[in-house]
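Sequence in, structure out. First:
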Amino acid sequence: MVEDSASRRRRRTASIAQAYRDSHEVMSICLSLGVMVGGGYWLDLRFSLLPLFTITGVILGFVAAGFSLRRLLERLDKRSRQEQSSSSASNDQGAT
C-alpha cells in the first residue's frame, strides 16, 4: 500500500513538472514573437522606416514561433503515443 501511494505521488509530481515544462515552452514561443515584433518596431522608430522592420519582425517572429511550436507538438504527440502504448500494454497484461 505504501509503495502504491508513493508511486502515485511520483507520477503526479512528474506530470506536474511536465506541465510546467510545456507551459514554459509556450511562454517562450509567445515571448520570442513579442521580442521580434517589438525589436522591429523599435528599429523602425530609431531609423524612421516605420513599416519595414516591424513587418520583418512579424515574419521572423512567426517563423521562430512556428518552429518552436512544431517541436513542442511533436514532443507532445510522441509522449501521447508512449502513454497509449504503455496503457494498452498494461491492459493486455491485466487481461491475461
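Second:
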Amino acid sequence: MRSLLLIFLLSFSFFKSQKCYDLKEVLKVQPTNLYKPHLLAAQNFGIKILEDSKSVDRYIAKGKFVKVKKKSRGYRLQTLEYSRPYLVKKARATLENMANKFATETKSFFVVSSVTRTMEDQCNLRKVNSNASLGISSHNYGAAFDISYVRFNHLLKVDPKLENKLEKLLEEYKNMGRIFYIKEKQQSCYHVTVRRY
C-alpha cells in the first residue's frame, strides 16, 4: 500500500511539473498580418515572453510592471481568472487616460476583462476557451488589455451609444500612435495593445 501511495505521489509531481505548452511549437505559429503590429509593439517594451508566475514576479520586483487598480475613474477591472492585474507603466497610464476621458465624455465606465497573461495562463485558458490564441499574444508581454463592449457600468447588455463612444476613443488613440486595437467578436471585447510612444 505504501509503495502504491509513493508511486501515485511521484506520478502526480511529475505531471504537475510538466508544462502544458511547448514554447518552440507556440513560437512556430505565425500571427496574422492584422496582429503582427500588436506583437511588435508589445515586444518594444523589452519584456521577454512571460512563461509563468515567477517571470511576472521578476518584472514586478524590477519595477517594470505596475498593478492595475480594481477600480478607477472610467473603468472597473473584472475578477480575473486567466490573467494578472499588471501592465508595463506606459500601458497602465494609457488605460487610465483613456478611461478618464471616457468617463468625462459619457459619465459612465467600461469593464476591463483581461490584462497580462503568462504562457501558462494562456494554456489554461485554451482548455476552457477554444478561441484563445494558440500563438504568442501581446498579453504575454504585459502591454495589452481587453475592454468589454457589452458591459458598461457593470450591466451586461448591448449599449450602442456607449460602444460607439468607446470605439471612437480607441480610434482617436490609434490615430495618435498610442495603441493598436482589434474588435474581437467572439469575446465581445476590444483587444488593445499599447505602443511605446
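Remark: The longest helix spans residues 89-106.
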